[in-house]
Amino acid sequence: MRLRLRRGKPTETSRLEAFSDGVFAVAITLLALDLARIHADSGAVPPVTLFDSLRTGWPTLLAFGGAFAFVGIAWTNHHNVFVRVKSISRSINGANLILLAAVAMVPWATSALADGLVDNADEASRQAMLLYAAVTGFGALTWGLLFQILSSNPDLLEDPLSAHQFAADRVGTVMGLTLLTVATAVGYIWSPLIGSVLLLLIPVIFAVASEGFERTGSPGTAA
């Protein structure tokens, strides 16, 4: 006689989606709270105006913009994934929780990145960039895990044929990790600022290309 863990009955998707939306919303809120670093300070010597604070606080704005894109695009992709899911197994729920753990760490890594970029040549900036890269890399791996589970369980999908699309989506995870590795290497060896900018642009690139490309005109005609 062989023993195995009980799989449990599949459940509806509504609770998972509602909880996930809450985590994404909190992550976005925490990112916005970090903007409080940029403010006027009339009590300082010399006084700091809002424009002065904006000029010196550019690392905070840069990190916020990239991280906001990361979380926002992740939320959009999460919705696009789960509209194709009919019911939730324990494995899908577990993979989703790991994905949300990665999202929850983004504000922390973003704050560290903003601090590190103040001195672009310092070792602290390299370490902050490595931390941000590790968190986003972990996030990419969690998407790959989720795609693997969904592609292996077509009975849990609205359309079982979607399993092939989820299997193909794993290629995007590999591409993302490859780009992330290149950006991190550039930042660590050459310039943490340039590496950080590349890291912050990666999710934007994937968002633009996520739907693929299509022809806009027949051969020989203007597009």
Task: Please describe the structure with a list of short key phrases separated by commas or semicolons.
69% helix, mainly alpha, elongated, 223 residues
Write the SSE topology.
Blueprint: H1 14-33, H2 50-56, H3 58-82, H4 90-116, H5 123-151, H6 162-189, H7 192-209
Helix pairs in contact: 1-3, 1-4, 3-4, 3-7, 4-5, 5-6, 5-7, 6-7
Compact summary:
By secondary structure, the chain is an all-alpha fold. It has seven helices and no strands.
What would you say this structure looks like, in words?
This protein is mostly helical and 223 residues long. The protein has one domain (14-35, 58-209). The chain has helices at 14-33, 50-56, 58-82, 90-116, 123-151, 162-189, 192-209. It starts with 13 loop residues before the first helix and ends in a 14-residue tail after the last helix. 28% of the residues are buried.
